[in-house]
Amino acid sequence: MSNQKQQKPTLSGQHSKTRKRDEKERFGPTQFQDCIIQSLTETGTDLEAVAKFLDPSGAKLDYCRYTETLFDILVAGGMLAPGGTLADDMMHTDVCVFTAQEDLETMQAFAQVFNKLIRRYKYLEKGFEDEVKKLLLFLKGFSVSERNKLAMLTGVLLANGTLNASILNSLYNENLVKEGVSAAFAVKLFKSWVNEKDINAVASSLRKVSMDNRLMELFPANKQSVERFTKYFTEAGLKEFSQYVRNQQTMGTHKELQKELQEQMSRGDPFKDIILYVKEEMKKNNIHFMKAFQKIVVLFYKAEVLSEESILKWYKDTHVAKGKSVFLEQMKNFVEWLKNAEEESACEAEEGD
Fold first, then answer.
1. In terms of Cα–Cα distance, which of 188, 183, 205 is closest to 145?
2. What is the number of other CB atoms lying within 10 angstroms of the CB of residue 158?
3. If 0-12 CB within 10 Å is exposed, 13-18 middle and 19+ buried, where does residue 183 land?
4. What backbone phi and psi angles, to 5 degrees, belong to 323?
């Protein structure tokens, strides 16, 4: 008995109907990979030719089913095993991000390939974000050069809107942070991002995903300080970005201080405990509370912790030299208000007599 499937007879002139989704070639992941790699190898390193191949191929090859495989190939040259290593028993190609030249111009060209592909096939957008998140978690498995290329590419893709800044959450992985991989990667990434967009655009993107106040976490807990962060990123050529992070950190610290002071006052904590807390915070954060000094004094005044007399006396003759001009300038308007209020009270008292 024959094992071959018998062909059913058809009526003369009958046309078989084929659904559009069935027109895609039915490949397993290995066959899909081999087809993509062979075609990329044939196009060579001409990225315009690569884009021209990828654009129409989505109609024949099942990009939707094999999204991860597709992006693994375009980035690493083949399917990635867990941890970020290339599978030894699979085909590889040199037409990929990791084997390209390590410079911003080349990564900008690759960014255009990804951008065009995702614009053409919108369903790839979510899969691409998942791919980048995975690649960031695999950073330890890549060489320094591969990390640098991926960082530059990611920065460009963040700048042109292909990627959302939320993908950077992968950089807070404990092991990546502990070994300094996250900070080194972030330097390259932000350099390419700031190169494409100004610091305000970068700050806006970070703020939208609530990451503007978490950048210090790129360093291990025992190395998280404004001074260390500023030094590290400034020496890497990101002085403007360092200043932005310093300002964000200072603003956040000020808000936390004011919130804590208000809570302590509302609880009726002893004055000596409140003063001790302020001193400890000021010591821990060096002179970064200078801008918040006036707000702290006003809080104490409203809570009747500081009197008019003590504030006016301090303003006149008991302040220390360090930060003198900054403190006096901050307090100028408030002191003037206190003086005027005091004079009005005196006038009202005289009229009452």
1. 188
2. 26
3. buried
4. 75, 15
Alpha-carbon gap, residue 193 to 159, rounded angstroms? 6
The pLDDT tens digits for 235-279 are 999 999 998 888 777 666 666 677 777 777 777 777 677 777 777
**Res 85 pLDDT > 50:** yes
Torsion angles phi and psi, residue 122, rounded to 5: -60, -25
Which residue pairs from 230-235 have beta carbons closer than 8 angstroms and sit at least 24 positions apart in sequence?
232/183, 232/187, 233/187, 233/190
DSSP string, 19-87: -GGGGS----HHHHHHHHHHHHHHHTT-HHHHHHHHHHHTTTS-TTTTHHHHHHHHHHSSPBPTTSPBP
Length of the chain, in residues: 353
Residue with tokens 């690649």: 135
pLDDT tens-digit profile of 56-79?
999 889 999 999 999 999 999 999
| d(C-alpha 301, C-alpha 281), whole Å | 19
pTM above 0.90? no
Q: How many CB atoms lie within 10 A of CB 54?
A: 23
- Rounded Cα distance between 12 and 133, Å, is 55
Is pLDDT above 90 for 23? no
First-to-last C-alpha distance (Å) of the chain: 126
Residue 24 has pLDDT above 90, yes or no: no
Condensed to tens digits (0 to 9), the pLDDT of residues 309-341 reads 877 877 776 555 555 676 677 788 888 888 887
Contact 43, 6 (CB under 8 A): no
Q: What is the pLDDT of residue 261?
A: 73
Phi/psi of residue 179, each to 5°? -90, 5
CA angle (131 as vertex; 125, 132 as ends), nearest 5: 95
- b/e sequence 252-266, b meaning 16+ C-beta within 10 Å: ebbeebeeebeebbe
- What pLDDT is stored for residue 12 in this prediction? 43
Do residues 95 and 53 touch, judged by C-beta distance below 8 A? no
Question: Which residue do the tokens 């080194």 mark?
Answer: 184
